[in-house]
# Entry
Amino acid sequence: MKKTTIFFCLLLPLFSGHITGQHQKLQHRPYVDQRLFHLGFTVGLHTQDLILTQSGYVNENGEVWFSEIPNYTPGFSAGMIADMHLNRYLNLRAIPTLSLGEKHFVFREQLSGEEFSTHIRNNYLSLPIHLKISTGRIDNFRPYFLLGGYGSIELGSQKKQAVLLKPYDFGIELGVGCDFYLPLFKLAPELKFEFGMIDILNTDRTDLTDESLQKYARSLSKATQRMITLSVHFE
# Structure
């Protein structure tokens, strides 16, 4: 018994050193979060969506059309990051971003089931302002949560289509992500949700010269923007 006790006493320091070495990893760029101001860039994929409100419009033929967005096409986003350090857990950041994408619409007549499909391209230049709320750093990663707002303007809207959206929008954004500290830079995958706060449907359709499209344009009374973006930040 005495020999066994002595044997375990000799092994204990070695075992403890092994465990400590496992939990105390080398931290990459340990002072990177203390910079007052830094720049970066971001790339990602997004899907554009609209919350549609039907008007119930009945045309001269007694038709009532309803519309929906049945599927989503991934779009591309790219932007710059300007980050200001506020304290250990808070950062204020502006991320001017260009988002290229499109929306698909399907219109269905209430009784006959007749369908009409169309799509519009929407390319937005937006300026989100975020408050980044981070946890404490754990070895070489650090989760965070963000909240903020955005303003956006559409670049070159397509007229003479069944659906025409206003060129400007603003709303709120929520998201989660995680900073990964690499030897040369910091990488952060991020999932962000965008909720438009205003009606962006343009109901003044003096541009619409094709009368056959009027029944589709008048079937909608309101549209608000939604977007989901999965991006990767490099800082």
Notes: The longest strand covers residues 115-134. Helices lie at 2-23, 214-217. The domain at 31-234 is CATH 2.40.160 (Porin).
